[in-house]
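Hi support team,

I submitted a single chain yesterday and got back a structure, but I'm not sure I'm reading the token output correctly. Could someone confirm the output below corresponds to the sequence I sent? I've pasted both exactly as they appear in my results page.

Thanks,
R.
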Amino acid sequence: MMSRVNPQSSREELTQVSTNVVPTQTQMSGFVKNEQVDVHQCLNEVNKRALAIGCTDFECSLERFKALATENGKLTSTTAREAITILQGEMEGHYENARREDYGQNIKGPDFVVEGLEEFENITYVEVKNPVGSAIKIANGQKGSIARQGRQIGAKLVYQQNYWSNTSKTSELENINPAASLPESPNNILGVVDNFDVP
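Hi R., thanks for writing in. Yes, this is the structure output for that exact sequence:
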């Protein structure tokens, strides 16, 4: 069983870990070389986060990380960021046994299936969002409002919670895997927002 820590008290330690990130780039951009994600660096980041929040008994194999970072047969910088985030939630004791579900060819359902713990015992799915700071958005030619980004993330989470728990909507998808499990209610999907790339 993993150690449960207070995420508020560990925020300062996590921020200190991020000080080597260039403010106009995401942390993930440092883990990509020649358009390939370096999964070893990603797993090192997972271990750094475990150390920073005092979770000394957390372990994740390279094989498990690759499985968490692969969606629809593809391992991308986005899916690798999601894997780092989902593992931090496991470290903090919000849920366990995170895994990807096969929703069918080219269908991206909720990011992860989980088993919720304690105050999150009703949670069976997690949807991960990774916002970025204004400097990163501006450097990439986008508008840089954190407030606007926050509203968009909130609206998207509510939409996804309602959509993926609505069987009349999901049954209309052509390639949906009939064996795939989906949430029974919007309340079964936890939205996790990882602010690591927001100074």
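A quick pointer for reading it: The beta strands are 32-33, 36-37, 70-71, 74-75, 95-99, 112-116, 125-129, 189-193. Let us know if anything else looks off.

Best,
Support desk
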